[in-house]
Predict the 3D structure of the following.
Amino acid sequence: MSDFETIKARDKKYFMNTYSPVDIAFDRGDGCYLTDTEGKTYLDFLAGIAVNSLGYNHPVFTEALTAQAHKVAVVSNYFYSEPRGLMAQVLMRGTHLNKAFFCNSGAEANECAIKLARKYFYARGEHRYKIVSALHSFHGRTLATVTATGQEQYNKPFSPLPAGIGEYVPYNDIAALEKALSDPEVAAFLIEPIQCEGGIIPATKEYLEAARKLTEANGQLLIFDEVQTGAARTGKFWAFEHYGIKPDIVTSAKGIGGGFPVAACMATDEVAEAWKPGDHGTTFGANPLACAVGYAVCTKLREPGFMEHVAVCGKRLMDGLKTIKSPYIKDIRGLGLVVGMEMESEAIANKIYMTMLDRGFILNVAGHKVMRFVPPLIITEEQIDTMIAALKEVVEDL
Ligand SMILES: Cc1ncc(COP(=O)(O)O)c(C=O)c1O
């Protein structure tokens, strides 16, 4: 293996400059720990940004991956294969959702949801095409999803943006939503139950209930973006289950593959029936390798007791954060194992991030000044206590 400086120099020369990484290259992981090329080990509270739900090197993940790799990785969607049906079944088990489409990233899942919403009304002969979304939301980097993303920093340089997307409402503001949805050309409201990239901002129950009621009354579709909140992260398999709300379309990615790229757009039968063969597709979507791994991972996440563990650990994390006394902490919020601690400024948040890395803990900063905690879902209460003890010293020493 090359040393860090060689890895970095090669990266600088050949890798496009769209990220700004810190000076660490990870080599391998085990459980909730990552080890860098210099042999230093870190306790991980980021999990590839809410991706590695079973941590690293988990036997459920590695065995499903290798077993399927020995059979077949990719077949064309011109043919059937068993894993995609199994993956769809386990994702939607016990919910009102009936049909899934698979793709490779959260952005693509949302792109699919937007197309499906438009196709639904097109098929019914209704002139509805607008997609309303929230300020400070994040829905991905394709042109449609970056337009739905209510943060100018992500979409401004890429004009002209697709029409009919990019009408933003302030999050958790029912009156503003009612007004925006009164437009008869609105097809759907796209919403994250917790704005994660925006800084771990949970929607209120009343807001989500109003969103369901209003869209229903207006004959519009409600789309939940559960790319980051899905796959047991909040202590239920889907965040919408906390609110007793039934979105027409739900998207997910990240944790459903436990580290293997797979994403899903799920819908009720009534909505999914709008698709006809040829309307949508992607070469790698629903490939047996991704679906076999996703199926194994999600089956594990749905085992009795697993989501209770997430809820218990989420509470431990939240309670632990609340023991930290600092005038720089402005708020602590979240659900299950998606938790944010809002700091006074971006500079302070970045300082905590770097100091914690130095001490061997991976967190990150979302929404400019919110410390984000999205660990592997197999994290233990002891590991949470260890991180909290270090964080307490770092924050109380600021
Ligand atoms: C809520 C939400 N939607 C969509 C995306 C985009 O997912 P991806 O990066 O897999 O395209 C993200 C990524 O952070 C997200 O958090």
Q: What stands out?
A: The chain has a mean pLDDT of 98. The longest strand covers residues 329-335. Residues 4-57+304-396 form a domain with the Aspartate Aminotransferase, domain 1 fold (CATH 3.90.1150.10).
